[in-house]
């Protein structure tokens, strides 16, 4: 098996008296797609925020490629290889789809994240940007300002930007939430392609059973902020821990 790229060690955060993530120790390997499941409020998003750096840990550590990144700001973690699906707030709303993708490629290529530099200065980056826009089926919207995109197309753009960034660790938080049945497969196919490359690590917070079944190599279950189960999908799904964690609530079948 490949070496662990990402590890959390006794990672915890408390908000006032409430422990939202409770001493989670977990290792993630290259080539592996881990689904993170658990009922509402279990701590999934908070765990993601701790890994990507959106919030600071109260205790424990996050280790990327052997390096302690626990105290690093988001931008530095991104630079080192942690990639979280962009929220619309990270985009330039008045620039179009293609320009936003090109800016991420430009920044990745070490040419700065300068939206004022002329597009013609970076002509060589336009073609890779167009390819990524095509992969998420947004070619028809390439010249549309991102602020005018439908919700589903915004989500596809988030995935496009992450692919442009091409981090070591891809973090997806319910990537198809709110997408139509026509749109979701585009994103799921792209995640499957990333997984097939075997050279990236993918973390996926997901409620949809069919998505987990199709994509996950491994499932971890969070319950009350703690790691309740960790293992192969069939084994975890059949376990009492999952039944107890969900307390009668089902993972979504849709
Ligand atoms: N900034 C915050 N301040 C106070 N409490 C918070 C904060 N962020 C999260 N929490 C609490 O931490 C717990 C975990 O929340 P979190 O959003 O991580 O759960 P989740 O598993 O992602 O849930 P969902 O599936 O509903 O998105 C919840 O009880 C939540 O209310």
TrEMBL record:
Swiss-Prot/TrEMBL keywords: ATP-binding, Nucleotide-binding, Transport
Domain ABC transporter: 6-249
One GO cellular component, as annotated: plasma membrane
Molecular function GO labels: ATP binding; ATP hydrolysis activity
Domain of life: Bacteria
Coiled coil stretches, renumbered: none
Name of the protein: Amino acid/amide ABC transporter ATP-binding protein 1, HAAT family
């Amino acid at each position: 098996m490949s070496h662990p790229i990402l590890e959390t060690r006794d990672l915890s955060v408390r908000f006032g008296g409430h422990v939202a993530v409770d001493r989670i120790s977990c290792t993630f390997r290259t080539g592996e797609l881990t689904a993170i499941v658990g009922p509402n409020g279990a701590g999934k998003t908070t765990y993601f925020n701790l890994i990507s750096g959106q919030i600071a840990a109260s205790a424990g550590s996050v280790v990327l490629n052997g390096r302690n990144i626990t105290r690093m700001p988001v931008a530095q973690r991104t630079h080192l290889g942690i990639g979280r699906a962009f929220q619309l707030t990270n985009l330039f709303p008045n620039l179009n789809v293609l320009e936003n993708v090109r800016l991420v490629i430009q920044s990745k290529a070490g040419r700065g994240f300068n939206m004022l530099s002329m597009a013609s200065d970076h002509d060589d980056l336009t073609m890779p940007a167009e390819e990524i826009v095509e992969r998420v089926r947004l070619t028809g919207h390439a010249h549309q300002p991102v602020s005018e995109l439908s919700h589903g197309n915004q989500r596809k753009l988030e995935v496009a930007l992450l692919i442009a960034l091409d981090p070591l660790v891809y973090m997806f938080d319910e990537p198809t939430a709110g997408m139509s049945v026509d749109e979701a497969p585009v994103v799921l196919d792209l995640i499957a392609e990333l997984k097939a490359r075997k050279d990236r690590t993918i973390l996926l917070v997901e409620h949809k059973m069919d998505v987990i079944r199709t994509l996950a190599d491994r499932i971890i279950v969070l319950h009350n902020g703690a790691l309740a189960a960790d293992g192969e999908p069939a084994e975890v799904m059949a376990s009492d821990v999952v039944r107890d964690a969900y307390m009668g609530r089902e993972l979504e079948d849709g």
